[in-house]
From TrEMBL, chains A, B:
It comes from the Bacteria. Keywords: DNA-binding, Transcription, Transcription regulation. Coiled coil: none annotated. This is TetR family transcriptional regulator. The lineage of its organism: Bacteria, Bacillati, Actinomycetota, Actinomycetes, Mycobacteriales. Pfam families: TetR_C_33, TetR_N.
Length: 196, 196
């Protein structure tokens, strides 16, 4: 009988502490993710959290990397379908992630994000996830003057704007889900060379 | 000799208190705009603020209305130029407002905005400013299936996403101003019937 490799005891503790930190983040927001609050949530001494994550910034960086991992999974739509169809599905996954985990979404993309620091590993991970979008955009026949990087940024702008206004509750159209799809459709059409 | 109508003493006090509240907002963010902090900033007794604005929510509502007035002025581009050109200029004014006054912008469009409450006068004022964008969009030859309301929301999503990612410092392209213009161009093209 074989057993899958199990996490070491030390790894298990790190995961348990990060789970506790995520619980605090989801419930109380990024400002509440302190070494002390995470220790309380996990039922350990503050030193146990401090030894692994050093500080609030260390905790938020680890949470942000995890959030980018989750976002990467949410926009992973597989190889099926044409490029526009795949982008639509990826964008819907992106919206689901944002609406399901607003505090994680805010952590990585709002003012104060660890991904704004060029030297942070969070920024490198964010760039990798953005590269997935860039690669998907490469499948489109882009309008002259547009490269995949700028095209992907335009698409990201559209979807980020749509989900953040939805989260804020200030969208001016009656059906936010339909409006999101419509925005993605408008941007994808605008990115491409018009069909004859 | 005629003189323009001058504000009454009471109006002058209200304006002075709102100026003080705006100073607190711009410097310390919406959470810091309390009756006590505004009184301190204005050099009056808290009762003087309380009598006019009742509460923190009353202060934030008055500030949000003023922010919408400023935004309306920022996107007012006059009648010159074609519809796409006017929209581009209005969007550039929108970006300038957001970047110059990030706390005011966040107050009206982020989570916690008074404009999320359907019963608030702030929401009515926000709807009026959005209607300016809807009217400008009416000048475009919209793609079949798109009405001006949904087209304006798509454009708003694009520009809101662009400026909020810029404010957060996480844009993936080197020139945020150029990327903003490009996003607006992509959306405006995506909204319109393709030229033959």
């Amino acid at each position: 009988m074989t057993v899958p490799r199990r996490r070491t005891a030390s790894e298990q503790v790190s995961v348990a502490l990060l789970d506790a930190a995520e619980t605090v983040l989801d419930r109380d927001g990024a400002a509440a993710v302190t070494v002390r609050a995470v220790a309380r949530e996990a039922g350990v001494a503050p030193m146990g959290v401090y030894n692994r994550f050093s500080s609030k910034d260390g905790l938020l960086a680890a949470l942000a990397i995890r959030a980018f991992d989750d976002l990467a999974a949410a926009i992973d739509v597989g190889p099926e379908g044409g490029p526009a169809d795949r982008l639509h599905r990826a964008c819907r996954g992106y919206r689901r992630f944002a609406l399901s985990h607003p505090a994680r979404y805010t952590l990585i993309f709002d003012v104060g994000s660890p991904a704004a620091d060029p030297a942070s590993p969070v920024t490198a991970r964010g760039r990798e996830v953005f590269a997935v979008l860039v690669d998907m955009v490469r499948g489109l026949t882009l309008r002259r003057g547009l490269d995949p990087l700028h095209a992907a940024q335009a698409l990201w702008n559209g979807q980020h704007g749509a989900v953040t206004l939805e989260l804020a509750g200030v969208v001016q159209t009656p059906d936010a889900a339909a409006t999101f799809d419509q925005t993605i459709d408008v941007v994808i059409r605008g990115l491409q060379t018009p069909r004859a």
